[in-house]
Structure formats: C-alpha cells, structure tokens
Amino acid sequence: MDEGLPLTTSNYSLRDEIRDYWSARAATFDEQVGHEIFSEAEREAWRELFLRHLGPGEGRRALDLASGTGVISHLLHGLGFQVTGLDWSEAMLSRARAKAETRGADIRFVMGDAERTLETPESYDVIVTRHLVWTLVDPPAAFREWHSLLKPGGKVLIVDGDFVSDTFIKRMIRVLQRFSGNGASAPHMPDAMRETHERILRQVYFSKGAQAAELKKLLREAGFSEIAVDRDLKRIHREQARHMPLLKGLERAIQHRYAIAAVKR
Known about the structure:
The chain is built from 10 helices and 7 strands. The protein is of the alpha/beta class. The protein has one domain: Rossmann fold. The chain has a 7-stranded mixed β-sheet, sandwiched between helices. Helix 5 links the parallel strand 4 and strand 5. The longest helix is centred in the N-terminal third of the chain and has 16 residues. It is globular and about 55 Å long.
C-alpha cells in the first residue's frame, strides 16, 4: 500500500491503522486549512473561543489530546496554561517538539493513546480536543478516561463536527465541484490514503457522523455535568474560508461543527 500504511491483519488493529494514517499525514499536516492557522485573525478567533469556555490559563494544567503538530497546544500555552500535548504518532510529536523548540515554548509532548492515556488521574484542570472525537473507536470509554484525568471542577472542551452525514447542500456542492473541475482529490490526500481514511471511517464509533446531541449524552453518562453546546464558530470558519477555494469554504460554513464544554463535579 502507498504511504507506508500496512494492510489490516489479525495482529494489526484499527487503532494501529489510525495511528499510522495520521503519521503518514504528518509531513503535510501544517499545510492544511483547519489544521494549521494561517492568519492572526483566525488565531484570535480561536483564542476568543478558548477564553469564552476556559478562561485565562493562569498556570493551570491543560491536556491537549491528539495534539498533532501542536497547534492547539501553542494556543493554550499563549493563554497562560501549563500544557501537555499527547499524541500517539511519533511523526506528529517530532514536528510538535521541533516547533516548540523553535518558538521557545515550554510545552510537554508525550506519546499516548487519547482513549487510554496512562496520565495521572485528577492531574489536569482543562482538557481540549480538536477534531478527535469523530475518529474515536470507543468514545464512552474515552470520556470516562478524560473525566478521571480532570480535577474536581475541571473542564473538557471538545471542538468537533459531523463530517460524514450527507445533505442536499453538500450534494449540490459536489455537483458544482465536478463542473468546475475542483472535485478531484486534494493534493495532500492521494487515492491510497483516501481509501485508508474511508476504511477507517467505516469502522469507528461515529461512522455515521458525530452529532452534538450524541456527544452530550455520552458525556453525561461518563459523569460530566453543565454540558453546553456552542455552535458559534462562524468567526473561525470565516477566517479559514479566506484561505480555501470558494466551494470548500462554503462546505466548511454549512457543516455541523460545534464546541462542547462540560464540567467534572
């Protein structure tokens, strides 16, 4: 298989395939809108979202789950949090550590599974995830794990969305893309890797799409309270769209995207 992604065998689990898929994407991760931040205006929009739900860092401990190359970790660090970024792709972590060294940012990056972190219980004030939950194999277990890692009164902030469910508008966008010649695979997603992505997606918990209502239910069952869904991400999406083709920007604007904040009591 291209991109160095092994075929699934009896000794090669879905979690292994997910790890290797993201490792293969590490080299181009920071080139993609929605992963890296390409303007100060978008950066400020993310800061505003975090301040709205988490408040200033003031030295509190924050865990950035599935931290990738450290984009969210650096945002949290800039707000005054003491940050740990956790990812199970060594390729991602290597880039994250290099970025932190270049910027002089004191961020701890560790390898680990976001569903089974092996971090110390009740050791974090804040947990943040971006575009992780829709890829989880076992969200109920992951949410229980995250609940255990938070101190009493700690908060989790999930930024995610339903990137799967089809809608009439999405179908129309695809038609327009075909007519405009923009429907081909993106340069950062070769066909072999796209096939891997689709195979993984068919097997994860939210294979039909991660809806906010379902996440709220699972968070409540994991012991969280004061669960609030924030769909006001327009400022972030508007700034991202400035760096995307017109139809891709439109698709970003109409997707079911949200931030969910919840508290451990």
